[in-house]
Amino acid sequence: MTKKGKTWFAILGFLSWKPMSGYDIKNLVDISLSYFWSISYGQIYPTLKRLVAAGYATTEAGRSIGDRKRNLFRITNEGQKALDDWMSKPIDLSIQRDEMQLKLFLGGQRDTAQTISLIRDFKGQQTQRRAQLLIEYDETAPALESGEFADDIQWLEPERLSGARQKQAVREQTLIFLLSIRQGILKAEARITWCDEAISLLENPPYANKS
Amino acid sequence: MTKKGKTWFAILGFLSWKPMSGYDIKNLVDISLSYFWSISYGQIYPTLKRLVAAGYATTEAGRSIGDRKRNLFRITNEGQKALDDWMSKPIDLSIQRDEMQLKLFLGGQRDTAQTISLIRDFKGQQTQRRAQLLIEYDETAPALESGEFADDIQWLEPERLSGARQKQAVREQTLIFLLSIRQGILKAEARITWCDEAISLLENPPYANKS
DNA sequence: TCAGACATGTAAGTCGTTACATGATTCA
DNA sequence: TGAATCATGTAACGACTTACATGTCTGA
After folding, report:
1. Which of B31, B36, B121, B140 has the most A C-beta neighbours within 10 Å, making it the best mutation to test the interface with A?
2. Of the candidates B171, B160, B148, B180, the residue with the CA atom closest to the CA atom of residue B29
3. Which of A109, A203, A205, B125 has the highest local Cβ count within 10 Å?
4. Which is more confidently placed, B94 or B81?
5. Residue closest to C10, CA→C1'?
6. How far is it between the farthest Cα atoms of chain A?
7. Mean pLDDT of chain A, nearest integer
8. What is the gyration radius of the CA atoms in chain A, in angstroms?
9. Can you tell me the distance from the alpha carbon of A14 to that of A10, in angstroms, rounded to the nearest whole number?
10. Average pLDDT over residues B157-176
11. Cβ neighbours of residue B1 under 8 Å, at least 6 residues apart?
12. B109 Cβ partners below 8 Å, 6+ apart?
């Protein structure tokens, strides 16, 4: 049996929303998950094939009204079952490589000045990211009230629902999206806090006057 | 020319401390960088070969006094130069895949109850990790005062230095190590904060009474 | 009509893990 | 003596990116 990794279930997860093409999936990830996920065609198309081979999806070539022609993939009951199973499994917490920490560790006691300057740069990056995320948050938040997506943010265009249900779906989706942005903001802020602590300690080591 | 990735420079960075074997490097990473880096023999030995081929390191087979025999690798001037260059380059900030966020996004509006339970589990994991890191912090911190490593924490055993210089080296290394633990703690706390916010919002959505 | 977006795919290569193979040395 | 650990490696596989190839459709 083929190996089922995170990409496998990520794609299956999108198909559980509604039937999609590989192209749709790529767009969806790029537009709405760009901060914490990415995927390439080199993964998508072969994985879709394997999903069909595994009986987790079916394919309908060429279909689509009004739109250009796309190869749509639809999740099967078996696929849905496998997805539900994976969704409820605890998060895999294996190491997240952290280049900043690696450089700190490797160079920290050899060249403090350079390390400090590196941390300063890092803080700059994180500060910028935080600002960017705050803007995105503010642009998205109104949809929570209105139930209508702002301008270009129509990543989830659900099957047409009647007015009230449609608005509710938009609100739910918006809340999820805001939560993910919020996570990015908190992460950036934690890093900024760390940078400040680290710079301060490296500039004035607590053992400075010890022999 | 062979590709030079992070693993390449990670290994080179260790060699810049003192000559080491592949086995030493593996141990060092496992013991002191385990929270934010990992490396396997399948990477180490081939990379060491490539470092030698690139002129960044030399090898001395069999050497070692009192110890078992090991193949030691020593960084060259050229290697040191390349390392310095890499060390001063800004941190690569490309996406960090985040399984929690992926699952939130995929399942959030389909099955809120399951998502909440997933977040609760995640919070549990992060709380545990935070506790573990706090313990490690407390165990390591005394070395900042004493200039002597606690019990089994002798990852950096520098070339023998005279008393005062030796203590100073230990203090510097300890500070770096504490900073990296601190980063792990801040990261875990940011995640815990997010979990609380997320659960609260998912349980009581701000749009609950809207039509 | 033709540039640009839409849409689908493959090939080659890097990166990393796991499992396996091999042998030396230590010490209970 | 034999189990554990020290020590060095390779092979196979999976995950992911990049670059390429190919063709369609839309609108200025």
Report:
1. B36
2. B180
3. A109
4. B81
5. A42
6. 79
7. 88
8. 22
9. 7
10. 77
11. B54
12. A169, A172, A173, A175, A176
